[in-house]
Amino acid sequence: RMDYNSERYSEGLIGSVLSCLERIIEVIADKSENRIRDISLLNEAELTLQEAYNNTHTSFPDTSTVVELFERCALAQPEAIALLEGETQVSYGELQAQSDAIAHLLVHVYGIGAGKAVGVLLERSTATVAILLGILKTGAAYIPMDIAYPPARVSAIVEDAAMTLLITETKDIAMGMNESCRSADATSLIASSATYQNQPSLNAATPDGLAYIIYTSGSTGKPKGVMVEHRSLMNYLWWALQYYLQGEPSVFALHTSLAFDLTVTSLFVPLISGNRMVIYREVEGELPVERVFSDNIATVIKLTPSHLKIIRESELQGLQSIPRKLIIGGEQLEQELANAIVEKLGTATIIYNEYGPTEATVGCMIYRHRREDFGYAVPVGRPVWNNRLYMLDRYMNEVPDGVAGELYIGGDSLARGYYQNEGLTAERFIGHPRKEGERIYKTGDLVRRMATGEIEYLGRIDEQVKIRGFRIELGEIEYQLNSYADIQESVVIAREEGGLKYLTGYYVSPVNIEPATLGNHAGPSGRRHKYKEKFF
What percentage of the chain reaches a pLDDT higher than 70? Predict the structure, then answer.
């Protein structure tokens, strides 16, 4: 018998607690020599039910690549518009020919092929899309970098990836490159590729080859490269195509950084489905996301909750003229924010909350927002095709429904690991403790499964934070601060103000530091200084 506050706890939850207690007593009575940490709180029936949640096996074209599916679309509809950028239109046939020419140039002039990685430091454009497809056609992987990256970060990635070629329009960064890596100006590369027009189609990409390597923040101060194979990418893209589009003609907006794996959806789903992509460049004084909505062209938009807050506060008019599907990722989505967006954009708006770390190829969990849902945050839902989710305690035991546990991910979407970092790969990609042969990824995210079977996100178990959807290790920022000769010690924390997150760093120095040394200081000069950097 258990007495409890029925206004705070449901009968189902209390029943679960009693079931766990009964299970513990049974194990102790039967196997009193067992360690307490080895006692599972779940009985066989509950374990079977959790397995049912992971019954996500679905066939997908696992012997194909994104290049092959794009070429099928180009062959079937060469005159159809693939890319729109302002007044510029590129058909599928033109994109096929241009990417083929680029691929031949990369192979014959730069020696690019399978096993190679090509850096891409470019603004979003029709030419950039052709270059990415050209790289993939050679069998190489691309490494996207944000054009806003400081030269030091670009150099660190170039060196870590042992990159042999960087394609960029940023001449000052190219000049400071590692001598072992060649740089190619994108405009010149496109012009030179005309020599290889009308060559046979080139497609050396393979399912087990790398499609891309995305570098994320590292706690040691050094970015780490996540290696994603074509097969994993295809599993996600094929699911996204079926789930989000459902056969409907769609227009995607490409408006976020290529270095952000959230962008992968907007980049490749339209190209393998014969749909259109509208490309938005960075324009000084304007926010691309506002142009995406004010244009009223895109019907499928991938973005973060930070983007939604911008739209909620904007004074844009006429936003209810077309129905839209919004795919949200990167940060926790608040129920109040989602409801406000539906109110502003119209009830024809559909919001999907997609969860997934880069190590699980963009997205591995999905939930369709409902305005009538209760709670602070929109759930992250259930596993997508061929993904398995496990909520484990610190002793690697499954936790009951309603109990918080660390999320581990298994299945076909898992990345190969971290580039040239076997130690970290072995630490984060581990074998399942009770399923021989299954590899799972340790996310560091705290979650729990609700009575409905949906999973809700609770936060991090470490010091990693997300700002505008980007994963940031606070240790990496501290590492950079500590690299200054006059700083003895530093600590960085994430703060929130007006719904926007930013980082604040505090450091200790034995001497005075000139204000220009680190940037924006607050507080009197002396032993303690405050360094504050805002990310919007």
Answer: 91
Using an 8 Å Cβ cutoff, are 292 and 280 in contact? yes
Reported as a single tens digit per residue, the pLDDT across 447-497 is 999 988 999 999 888 666 777 666 677 777 777 787 777 787 788 887 877
Nearest to 311 by CA among 284, 296, 85, 245: 296
Q: What are phi and psi of 528, to 5 degrees?
A: -105, 130
Tell me, what's the pLDDT at 151?
A: 86
Q: What counts of helices (H) and strands (E) characterise the chain?
A: 16, 27
Q: Which two tokens stand for residue 348?
A: 């024809």
DSSP 337-358: HHHHHHHHH-TT-EEEEEE--G
pLDDT score recorded for residue 518: 45
Query: Distance between CA atoms of 90 and 137, rounded to whole angstroms?
Result: 19
CA atoms within 13 A on the CB side of 269: 31
Radius of gyration of the chain (CA): 25
- CB atoms inside a 10 Å sphere around CB 106: 27
The model's pTM is 0.85
DSSP per-residue string spanning 281-334: ---TT--HHHHHHHHT--SEEEE-HHHHHHHHH-----TTSS--EEEE-SSPPB
Cα atoms in the Cβ-side hemisphere of radius 13 Å centred on 230: 24
Tell which wins on pLDDT, 44 or 81.
81
Q: List Cβ neighbours of 416 (8 Å cut-off, separation of 6 or more).
A: 210, 227, 228, 229, 232
pLDDT at 221: 62
CA distance linking residue 481 with residue 475, whole number of Å: 10
Taking only the tens place, the pLDDT of each residue in 207-255 is 999 999 999 876 556 789 999 999 999 999 999 999 999 999 999 999 9
Note whether 119 and 143 are within 8 A (CB): yes
Name the phi and psi angles at 59, rounded to 5: -70, 140
Buried b (16+ CB within 10 A) or exposed e, 408-443: bbbbbbbbbbbbebeeebeebbeebeeeeeeebbbb
* DSSP 8-state secondary structure symbol assigned to residue 377: B
